[in-house]
Predict the 3D structure of the following.
Amino acid sequence: MVKIKISEKRNPIPQQVSIGENITLTTWGTIKVNKSHFFPSSFQLKIDDKVIYIDPVGVENTEKADYILITHAHPDHFSFKDIKNLLNAETRIVCSKGVSKKLSDVKNQIQIVKPKEQLQFEKFSIQATFAYNTKSVFLWIKAHPKSKENVGYIITLKNGFSIYHAGDTDYINEIKELSDIDVALVPIGGDNLTMNTEEAAEIINKIKPEIVIPMHYEIKNHEELNRFETLINKKTRVIKLD
């Protein structure tokens, strides 16, 4: 069984960066997955007065959520404890069908999405994207098979500014079709779970966002993190968090 807890190596101060006009991104940093100290795919976005969480795990000192987006049901992305702490009566949860099965207690607040579907809200739209593995963990078994319909998300504001959270995915054909991305959050951990450093750099250099934030990697791999930065086109700003 996978055990998730707060890492003793976590930065005690939540890290917050501005990624656009009236848009801030916050991470609470490193979690411990079994024995590995791991920078997760968990973020808070504040867009004007709206609070959005993506894959909240190990979130501390929380503001209640207007929206919670979950990419898939693996425990480093899905924490019912964190979700309950963030909910109020008005919170909307956007997730795949697989995640929704674990949220029966709050099913009236759930919007199920499949890849390519788009939801329209007052201040922005949310598009679900494909997120799956082409590589196998063992024989034909994949950690994130396409049949599960796991997702990433593109959040697009009324002015066209867009933020892409890739979820757990390899460098797949559907990602090559993305365009007009301003901020990209991409996994670099590899190990048959996600795209690796080189693959992540390749897709970023293809879609050319203004900002990229690497995620989903063991924090001991600082050499890989630094190498990712060297591989990125100089027109894209790399923000490294821990």
